[in-house]
């Protein structure tokens, strides 16, 4: 079964780009290919002109299911430190990176806690801290806020924007939430229904400084989210139309 078709796009260094598309269009599959977790059957993923054949050393991944990505028997600081042990860093340097990452996500006081003692939003902050401590050049995020409540989601969105601005990372953020994509991204890539192609690449011309109270009620925000919504609905209609065409019986002959 073909999941992704001829799909080509570029993310520039230091960009924050959001990927959206109809449910089941292959967003997570695409992100795993980009992170070297899946090997595409054709085509290449290039990072700084080098072909990705496995997880690159300068890339970190934040998954949707934080409960499965954190080890419940390890304390918060231990969870954050774990990937650093592969870097062969001195213990003191690892501790500095862990402390800095936890402070960056507002969890400096939770280093000694276990993940199961924290709320869902705090657990996802731990997962983000673990990615930050790795000092990635590229951060891939796969619907990381889908399982948290609306208020926590808003706080985490602002956290990602702040960290992106402070640390000059390249972030590719997959989401099914159109408002989130427009709020977060400098650019939104709209994917078609499966087999997936790039339907549109939309520049988000909102101010660099954004906040939940004012940005989301701005007329331009409404225009952008409406446009993305229309594109996704068009992708769904195209998929339905293709499905009906394929299932139609052949015309009768005389």
TrEMBL record:
Q: Which residues form the ABC transporter domain?
A: 1-218
Query: Is Aminoacyl-tRNA synthetase one of the keywords?
Result: no
Say which domain of life the source belongs to: Bacteria
- What CDD domains does this protein's entry cite? ABC_NrtD_SsuB_transporters
Q: Which InterPro entries match?
A: AAA+_ATPase, ABC_transporter-like_ATP-bd, ABC_transporter-like_CS, ABC_transporter_ATP-bind, P-loop_NTPase
Keyword vocabulary terms for this entry: ATP-binding, Nucleotide-binding, Transport
Q: Which residues fall in a coiled-coil region?
A: none
Q: Molecular function terms in GO for this entry?
A: ATP binding; ATP hydrolysis activity
Name by which UniProt lists this protein = ABC transporter
Q: Specify the taxonomic lineage.
A: Bacteria, Bacillati, Actinomycetota, Actinomycetes, Kitasatosporales
């Amino acid at each position: 079964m073909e999941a992704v078709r001829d799909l080509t796009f570029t993310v520039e260094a230091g960009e924050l780009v959001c990927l959206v598309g109809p449910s089941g269009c292959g967003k997570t599959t695409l992100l795993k290919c980009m992170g070297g977790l899946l090997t595409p059957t054709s085509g290449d993923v290039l990072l700084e002109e080098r072909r990705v054949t496995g997880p690159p050393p300068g890339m970190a991944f934040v998954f949707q299911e934080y409960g499965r990505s954190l080890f419940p028997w390890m304390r918060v600081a231990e969870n954050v430190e774990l990937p650093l042990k592969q870097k062969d860093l001195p213990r003191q340097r690892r501790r500095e990176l862990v402390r800095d990452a936890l402070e960056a996500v507002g969890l400096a006081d939770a280093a000694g806690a276990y993940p199961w003692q924290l709320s869902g939003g705090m657990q996802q902050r731990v997962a983000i801290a673990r990615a930050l401590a790795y000092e990635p050049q590229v951060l891939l995020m796969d619907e990381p806020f889908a399982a948290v409540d609306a208020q926590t989601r808003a706080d985490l969105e602002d956290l990602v924007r702040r960290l992106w601005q402070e640390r000059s990372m390249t972030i590719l953020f997959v989401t099914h939430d159109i408002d989130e994509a427009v709020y977060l991204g400098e650019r939104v890539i709209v994917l078609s229904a499966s087999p997936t192609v790039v339907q549109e690449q939309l520049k988000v011309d909102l101010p660099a400084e954004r906040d939940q109270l004012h940005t989301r009620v701005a007329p331009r925000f409404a225009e952008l989210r409406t446009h993305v919504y229309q594109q996704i609905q068009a992708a769904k209609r195209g998929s339905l139309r293709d499905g009906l065409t394929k299932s139609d019986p052949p015309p009768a002959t005389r």
